[in-house]
Give the backbone structure.
Amino acid sequence: MSTGTMKKSHSQWSSRMGFMLAAAGSAVGLGNIWKFPYMAGEMGGSAFVLTYLLFMFVIGLPILVLEWLIGRRGQKNPIHTMEDVAISEGRSKSWHWVGIIGVVGSFLILSFYSVIGGWATDYIVLSAQGTFEGAHGEVTGQIFDNFLGNVNHLLTWHTVFMFATASIVAMGVGAGLERACKIMMPGLGVLLLVLVGYAAYVSGPSFGKAFSFLFTPDWSAINGTAMLAALGHAFFSLSLGMGIMMAYGSYLGKDVNLLSTARTVVILDVIVAMLSGMAIFPLVFANGLQPGEGPGLIFVTLPIAFGNMAGGTVLGVLFFIFLTFAALTSSISLLEPTVELLEEKTPLGRKSATILSSLVIWALGIACLLAFNEWADVKLFGKNIFDLLDYLTSKIMLPLTGLGTVVFGAWMMNQKRIREELNLNDFWFSVWSVLTRYIVPVAVIIILIYGFL
Ligand code: PHE
């Protein structure tokens, strides 16, 4: 399907498919494969998982639609889009704060995202060297611990990952990455399926145990902390609350159906997370590992599978290549808002803007990386630097920006136009209104308050 009418002086996605790939590329990343399983493990499983699923559809999906809709109206970077759309709706231009907090959030997230992207990249090399051949739980745990303790090593790979991100952004996101994405994303999906199959095959009863750990409702485990974590992760995993989807919407043609596209992106995002969970937890239980292992979870569990299956070395290399690519398609979307802003607001050109912002993010990344070793005891509010940045962004900034977006979209904008744009009949328009005017904002406020008590 073509995106039809061209807007003057503003480029558009070449097709609905191209847009969907870019949006899915930003959404699917380390959040699904690295962060989701370890959070589920730390939060005790199903209560977190089911709440996250609910929030993805009830809260994430409407906000995703609104970010695209606002972006398509504004046709600019997130800050000026918010400002222009607010003015055209007769509202205060201070709504641009939603865009500003978003850009700051993307900047902070990228600093730790790049460190973990570096881990994934290094695991390509470690797998290729056959490091994991025949390895069991204790061995992979030991390898990971040594790896975390080696500052120079972590620094090298963080630098490599940040350099790759910056190079792609500096060149502009050309056909290369989009094409690579078309190959890498399905590849990642297939390999995840292979891993789930392998986990089912070797771990026997642990597979059932993993399934019920993730999906059998146990509401006693749900509390404010888990709910806030699930909410924050729904935002993180859909790349919401950072102006990123707003920026993507600004390149969108009028005839793209926002609701159905959003539904596809949310479903894809959820499927990748669930497959990762079902690939990882059977191995956790079968090998006597701890679900609450933390950020190292996938780096300790998946190598066990690769180390012991036929052709595992090759599959391991492929898996970590795909993972690195999934991370890159997200990290470039995280760098873009800062670069775009510097380019527009300072005399810097695209290249210098990219270099400057990457250097600052890289330096902040070093502080995160030290949190895993030499600065492990440096704590603020009881959290090390990595945890603090994650907390500040996922649990405070993203929900706040998301709240700003939904309040703006549902209360400040002309609802009749939105209804036409989303092509809703009476029934679905009432559902949409109740959801965006009451349920979503009230839920986000309650969870924020409840989460901090
Ligand atoms: N959604 C990406 C992931 O799941 C991470 C991301 C967050 C990307 C915020 C862009 C913005 O890995």
User: Anything to note?
Assistant: The radius of gyration is 21 Å. The first helix runs from residue 16 to 27. Residues 26-27, 29-32, 106, 109, 236-237, 239, 242, 244, 330, 333-334 surround phenylalanine (CB under 6 Å).
